[in-house]
Write a structure and sequence with these properties.
It is built from five helices and four strands; from the N terminus they run βαβααβαβα. The longest helix has 22 residues. The protein is globular, with a radius of gyration of 14 Å. The chain has a two-stranded parallel sheet with strand order 1-2. The protein has a two-stranded parallel ribbon with strand order 3-4. By secondary structure, it is mainly alpha-helical. 43% of the residues lie in helices and 8% in strands. This is Low molecular weight phosphotyrosine protein phosphatase. Its EC number is 3.1.3.2, 3.1.3.48. It holds the Pfam family LMWPc. It is an enzyme of class 3 (hydrolase).
């Protein structure tokens, strides 16, 4: 799960998906992680508002931001991102990777409510983080149903 900085949307999506997989007792079948297309926040914990939103829903995460690597394109089956800018960046990076096996697409592709883009809540408020959480939950549930 990929976003620009890996401190808001993608760590929320990662934590939501990990909880869904754990609740379904499928954690042995899935390797879940998140990353950034940029190196701006490498090593930082998620935004405090993202952590607060997750805690509000009973989800914890110890994720620290990292940048996507060439190995990610070679080892993950799916790389899901949040918006068109992420998609362009990932497609450009994947073209430089030999043996890229990852299917790269927007997480919003799986949204039953057809909200294709998951907007960055960084400059918003808690309500915007809640919107991201709800979108990620819908999309991750639908993605898991499709591939389980």
């Amino acid at each position: 799960l990929v976003s620009v900085g890996n401190i808001c949307r993608s760590p929320i999506a990662e934590a939501v998906f990990r909880k869904l997989v754990t609740d379904e007792k499928l954690e042995h079948q899935w390797r879940t992680d998140s990353a950034a297309v940029s190196d701006w926040n490498v090593g930082r914990f998620p935004d405090s508002r993202a952590l607060g939103c997750l805690r509000h829903h009973g989800i914890e995460t110890a994720h620290k931001a990292r940048q996507i690597t060439k190995e990610d394109f070679q080892t993950f089956d799916h790389i899901l991102c949040m918006d068109e800018s992420n998609l362009r960046d990932l497609n450009r990076k994947s073209n430089q990777v030999k043996d890229c096996k990852a299917k790269i697409e927007l997480l919003g592709t799986y949204d039953p409510q057809k909200q294709l883009i998951i907007e960055d809540p960084y400059y918003g408020n808690e309500k915007d983080f809640e919107t991201v959480y709800e979108q990620c939950l819908r999309c991750c549930k639908a993605f898991l149903e499709k591939y389980h």
